[in-house]
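Supplementary Text 2. Reproducibility record for the structural model of the 136-residue chain.

All settings were left at their defaults, and a single model was retained for analysis rather than an ensemble. We include the record here because the model underlies the residue-level annotations in Supplementary Table 4.
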Amino acid sequence: MPADRIDTPAPPRLWALAAALGLALVAVTAIGLWQLRRDAVAGQARELSVLSLAVTDEIGRGLQEVDEGLAVLRVELGDGRLSLQGADAGRRLRTRADLLPLVQSLWVVDRHGTVLAASLAAPPPPLASFEPALAR
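Retained model, structure tokens:
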């Protein structure tokens, strides 16, 4: 008598089991995605740390080279090996600026801020911008 059979709804326990399996699948997926996100963020943080160290090291070396180059320039000016007179003074300073990393232009000024020679025709920046912040 299969025709007399009436389809009955699935027992509530079966629905509860399906819902529990669905929630478990959602939870496992969420935990897996959270772990992947955490690993990606940690990897990016490591890469940024290495990049930061490399940039800091490069800037430190560049500033050290600029400091040494300016010390040599000071000695050349003091010994008279670098003349600030004549039409070639700007070219000589431009050559020295090109040899120094992180330097785009050079100005030689006296104690009063008067430009004695420049590597380019632009006016120098305000001298107060070179003073330490605590000295102001």
